[in-house]
Task: inverse folding
């Protein structure tokens, strides 16, 4: 493994009696496109929030490109971009204003921000809606706008929480290519997803999280172990309940 | 179908009782108020017995109820699950039985019952003789039926709009005239009553045109029947019934259309300029631009400014309207305006909501936090300074003492500086999540954080109060100085003092925020945007 871009050690977080993240250790090499998969409520979003300095962990350390997120948040935040699960955007700004604001918050010169925002809106197929309020965007459009905001300062490390949820297949393909291109140039991407096919297709590193713990982590081939990722995931996490017997009436033509 | 929907409505009510303490409290309070309204309206209507203007006043009350039914669904959309036809669109239901069911569901509950019982006060106040009493009962039932059908027609035909962003904005904007009306009536009515301006006789003839509206038809039918004109009474009731049938027919049509119309937004227009203003002024400029845009485009922000203006006017209203002149009240108005500007923005993280996370990711140093808070203050100051100055000037003229404008403006400037600086500090130290409760267009403190709101207003009141005291004293001690010297010196010194206070607030807030950003992010994420 080359230089480590994301290093997580002993990360823990509890909400009351519930332990959402129960000791996560993770290493992602620079230039990697890594996937974090897990069932609903497994601790993916909580882990990503702690890795990006948005949620204070109870214990553990997160180091990004050699910078400790919780000891030196200033320097660490400067090198990351984040797309949260629920696109948290300013509803009353237009798409163009939103991207421009994100860039200017990052200290980019106004002219540079404007030109980058225009290009990103173009690539993300939002140019026609650039002057519409974000409040009127669909879920997929919000996701794309959030990605534009996260990319505008060209971060060396990008975190994405469910980046393709609600995005149409054409835009999803654009985003996939964008992420591949980003990692090709040396940046590191870590994203969480439910879509196993996508993770299997694009990621070179996969981690499976369940009940706040990593149950598998390694290269995609290692985690798959000769099976599809979907199969490996189900084998590791296990089906939640047997439904075949209970719903015996389902599928019959009688009501 | 009627039974199923009535059961659904009752189930929703019961679930409210079984859910959180807040929901239970609000349900119990709502039922309590319904009982108070029923008893109160019954009592008021029965008081009109023998009055020369009893039919006029009854007409006004009937019309007011219809107006309430017309406006309330715009606020309460989402409060009543049976109000939105889209929730029922998935099921194989025929329009006619569905309409009857929805009507029955509408008539179920404490408020429709309160409406019916309260209006039956006409049996005492307006009706006389067996025919009068019979017509009164029919007229009240028809009036309630009219109100329900009208409300249903409004909700159904506006359902698509009400679900959209613009509909929700409309609900928020309706808050302004209603708030202004309540505040001003609170001042005007006691004043007028104190000077003998409000008597039953003063209302004679107010129903000149209202009598031809459906609620007026109901009220006048009762009078006709009581005064031995059964033909006229019957004609009015028939006309009212016809109006209800037409409304019902329109509603059924609108319902069958609403069930198959796409649930989309109302289409959104493009903004003219796409570029963020103040591009040359770095992070401070960017934050100021964002806040400035939000003050214009966010309905809640506009409502806050309108409420500030209304409150300032209301503080001086008794002096403007009453016979006694207390010109110094204008200074009170200015200070109150500053207090409310501070209070309304004392939880800027909660108000910003989840997008604050984007800002937090970039707010990495003390310097950037200073730029963030000062940018915010610049945007708010650009609106607050001219607004408070203009209102203070206007009020000084309204109390026929223009000279009072000088100390009032001075107090406004110093108070605003203190209020904004304090708002920055409170944003960091007393942040709380904001939530949009069902039925309320405005966001409020999330359940369990009510005391934070109280803390915010108390801190703003005390902070601004203490901060403006030296300005008020300076104005009092210099009241005999030549105006040409006093006015500029007082205003410039107060402005500088206000700026210094705001600057101090920014410094303290930036220092405190550095260590609390993750916690502030969590509060932002818990808020509803």
Result:
């Amino acid at each position: 493994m080359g230089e480590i871009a994301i290093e997580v050690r002993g990360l823990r977080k509890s909400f009351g009696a519930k332990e959402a993240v129960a000791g996560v250790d993770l290493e992602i090499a620079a230039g990697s496109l890594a996937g974090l998969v897990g069932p609903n409520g497994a601790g993916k979003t909580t882990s990503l929030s702690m890795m990006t300095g948005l949620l204070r962990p109870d214990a553990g350390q997160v180091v990004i490109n050699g910078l400790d997120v919780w000891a030196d948040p200033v320097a660490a935040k400067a090198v990351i971009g984040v797309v949260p699960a629920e696109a948290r955007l300013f509803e009353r700004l237009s798409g163009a204003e939103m991207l421009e604001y994100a860039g200017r918050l990052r200290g980019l010169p106004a002219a540079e921000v404007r030109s980058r925002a225009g290009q990103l809106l173009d690539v993300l197929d939002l140019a026609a809606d650039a002057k519409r309020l974000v409040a009127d965007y669909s879920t997929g459009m919000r996701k794309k706008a959030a990605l534009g905001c996260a990319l505008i300062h060209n971060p060396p490390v990008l975190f994405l929480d469910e980046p393709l949820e609600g995005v149409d297949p054409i835009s999803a393909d654009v985003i996939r290519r964008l992420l591949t291109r980003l990692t090709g140039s040396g940046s590191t991407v870590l994203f969480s997803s439910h879509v196993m096919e996508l993770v299997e297709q694009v990621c070179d590193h996969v981690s499976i999280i369940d009940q706040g713990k990593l149950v598998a982590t390694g290269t995609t081939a290692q985690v798959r172990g000769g099976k599809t990722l979907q199969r490996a995931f189900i084998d590791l996490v296990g089906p939640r309940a047997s439904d075949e017997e209970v719903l015996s009436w389902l599928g019959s033509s009688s009501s | 179908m009627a039974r199923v929907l009535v059961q659904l409505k009752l189930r929703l009510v019961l679930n409210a009782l079984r859910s959180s303490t807040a929901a239970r409290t609000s349900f119990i309070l709502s039922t309590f108020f319904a009982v108070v309204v029923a008893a109160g309206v019954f009592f008021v209507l029965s008081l009109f017995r023998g009055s020369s203007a009893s039919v006029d006043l009854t007409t006004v009350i009937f019309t007011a109820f219809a107006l309430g039914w017309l406006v309330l669904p715009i606020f309460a959309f989402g409060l009543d699950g049976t109000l939105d036809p889209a929730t029922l669109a998935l099921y194989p239901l025929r329009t006619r039985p569905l309409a009857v069911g929805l009507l029955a569901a509408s008539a179920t509950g404490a408020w429709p019952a309160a409406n019916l019982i309260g209006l039956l006060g006409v049996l005492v106040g307006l009706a006389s003789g067996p025919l009068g009493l019979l017509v009164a009962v029919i007229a009240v039932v028809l009036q309630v039926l009219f109100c329900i059908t009208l409300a249903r027609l409004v909700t159904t035909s506006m359902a698509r709009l009400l679900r959209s962003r613009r509909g929700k904005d409309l609900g928020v904007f309706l808050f302004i005239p209603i708030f202004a009306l309540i505040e001003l009536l609170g001042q005007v009515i006691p004043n007028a009553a104190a000077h003998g301006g409000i008597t039953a006789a003063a209302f004679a003839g107010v129903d000149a045109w209202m009598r031809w509206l459906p609620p007026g038809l109901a009220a006048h039918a009762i009078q006709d029947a009581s005064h031995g004109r059964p033909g006229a009474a019957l004609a009015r009731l028939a006309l009212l019934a016809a109006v209800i049938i037409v409304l019902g027919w329109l509603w059924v049509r609108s319902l069958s259309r609403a069930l198959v119309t796409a649930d989309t937004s109302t289409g959104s227009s493009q903004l003219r300029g796409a570029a963020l203003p103040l591009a040359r002024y770095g992070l401070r400029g960017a934050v100021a631009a964002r806040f400035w845009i939000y003050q214009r485009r966010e309905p809640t922000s506009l409502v806050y400014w309108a409420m500030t203006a209304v409150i300032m006017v209301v503080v001086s209203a008794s002096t403007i309207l009453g016979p006694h002149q207390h010109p110094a009240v204008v200074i009170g108005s200015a200070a109150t305006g500053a207090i409310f500007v501070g209070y309304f923005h004392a939880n800027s993280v909660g108000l910003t909501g989840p997008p604050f996370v984007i800002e937090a990711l970039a707010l990495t140093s003390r310097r950037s936090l200073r730029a963030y808070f000062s940018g915010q203050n610049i945007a708010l100051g650009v609106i607050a300074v001219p607004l408070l100055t203009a209102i203070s000037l206007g009020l000084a003229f309204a109390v026929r003492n223009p000279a009072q404008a000088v100390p009032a403006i001075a107090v406004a400037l110093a108070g605003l500086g203190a209020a904004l600086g304090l708002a920055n500090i409170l944003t960091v130290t007393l942040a709380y999540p904001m939530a949009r409760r069902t039925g309320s267009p405005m966001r409020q403190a999330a359940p369990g954080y009510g005391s934070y709101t109280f803390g915010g207003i108390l801190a703003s009141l005390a902070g601004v109060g203490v901060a403006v005291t030296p300005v008020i004293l300076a104005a009092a001690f210099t009241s005999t100085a030549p105006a040409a010297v006093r006015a500029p010196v007082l205003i410039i010194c107060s402005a500088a003092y206000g700026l210094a206070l705001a600057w101090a607030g920014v410094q303290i807030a930036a220092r405190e925020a550095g260590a609390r950003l993750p916690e502030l992010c969590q509060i932002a994420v818990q808020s509803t945007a």
